[in-house]
Amino acid sequence: MHFIRNHPVLTAAVVVVTLLLILIITSLTGRTTPVEDAVGTVVSGVESGASAVTGGIGDWFLSLIGRSKLQQENAELKERIAQLEGQLALNGDLENENKRLREIVNYYGEHPEYELLTARVIARSSSYWFDTFLINVGRSQGIEKDMVVLSTQGLVGRVVDVGSSWSKVLSIIDSDSAVSAMIERTRDVGVVRGTADVEADEPRCGMYHLPYDNDLVPGDTVLTSGLGGIFPKGIVIGKVVEVSRSSTGTERIALIEPEVDFSQLEEVMVLLNTIDEVEVGE
Amino acid sequence: MKRAVSWTLLLILTVVLETVIIPRYLPVTFRPDTVVAVMVVVALVYPGPSAGFYGAAAGLCMDVILSPAVGALALSYYLTALLVGFFAGRYYAKNWLFCAAAAFGARLAREVLLVVFLLPFGVKTDFFSALTPMLVSAALTAALCAPIYAFKRRTSNAKMRRARYE
Question: How far is B161 from A107, CA to CA, in rounded Å?
């Protein structure tokens, strides 16, 4: 510690060079290093616990809100109603979870060709520049890089990094994500990318490289095309909300509202089989 | 030992706040940066390398679990802490207003540095579309920083008085 205090410039240079090396090495190799895996395992463990606790605190606050509303009533009734409100809030939460899980089970039944693994979202990025989140399954559960992540509403993204008990998912609304897609009605093919527009109220995607003469209209459904080798064909991405021309005027661009509500995402499904296995299953 | 435990707890608390609680309950346009808020207070109350190390460790934890370029966030936090330390050494006034102004500037500086480190790795950024949310976030960070600073100064003054008395 004395050395650090006596040599501040040298210390700063060492820290900056070390962090730069980490940045360069991890982006060049593109793989999770053992140190990264260990840090990720510890942090994801803490976050998993924190995520469960904050859910519980949310329920507690709901019961408190219910209690404060009944403050003017007499003491006995207030307490009784507060208890019931608390229970109701808890039941409501359980009911919502039950509904979500039932939807997942139904989704499993509707898509027998998919081998799916349900996972819980435990942490999310709070940055403007990337939209990634962490799920509580990893290499030990059979997760691999580039596996597709879905919700019952549609396509969520793909796994970009895998640790022993955690995985990092890049969502389709991230500006770095690219998904080969097609319009369900017209069968026109394009590429869906996230937009880097931070100020939009709802996250949106753009569909690029659409032929200029297509008759795209707002409300058209966008599905994955199956091209590109990662995303199987026919998964819902979203709906067209606006159509415009590209700056060169040679192609059309569609603004898409994703079907998945990314702000409310709690459980997701990871597709364990590859695109080829899904196509054989169909 | 006690000091190491408190630093670790502070680190865990801010990382959990930044990655679990804030993204879950606050929209992207209204998010303060708790790491910057704590880092600025640490830089002003304890001049030296502590703020930088704390920022780098918090940034690295968040990088590993969420960022596409591991190390970018850590670097941006570390350099921001150095900047705060540099300016604090020259123009430091012992009041909450200076602390809030430092937090406001540090929040913006951190974002600019992050963009600089992300660009070579192909991450698309639209700095001007994010300017309004960034200013809001900087204002929220400053608002969060001022009471933490006031509390921290009061407790460290009380500690010093107690030590002098003893």
Answer: 65
Contacts of A85 (CB under 8 A, 6+ apart): A62, A63, A66, A67, A69, A70
Q: Which two tokens stand for residue A111?
A: 């898509």
Tens-place pLDDT, residues B66-101 = 887 888 899 999 999 988 888 877 776 677 888 899
Give the one of B52, B60, B75 whose C-beta lies nearest to A20's C-beta: B75
Q: Which sign, positive or negative, has the C-alpha torsion B49, B55, B61, B66?
A: negative
**CB < 8 Å from B in window 201-240 of A:** none
Helix, strand, or coil (residue A222): strand
The contacts of residue B129 (CB under 8 Å, 6+ apart) are A196, A197, A198, A199
ipTM over 0.85: no
Give the pLDDT of residue B47: 77
Give per-residue pLDDT as tens, A34-81.
Answer: 777 777 777 777 777 777 776 655 555 545 555 555 455 677 776 777
Assess A5–B contact: CB distance below 8 Å, yes or no: yes
Phi, psi of A258 (to 5 degrees): -60, 145
Using a CB-CB cut-off of 8 Å, the residues of chain A touching B24 are 54, 124
Decide: A44 and A119 in contact? Cβ < 8 Å. Answer: no
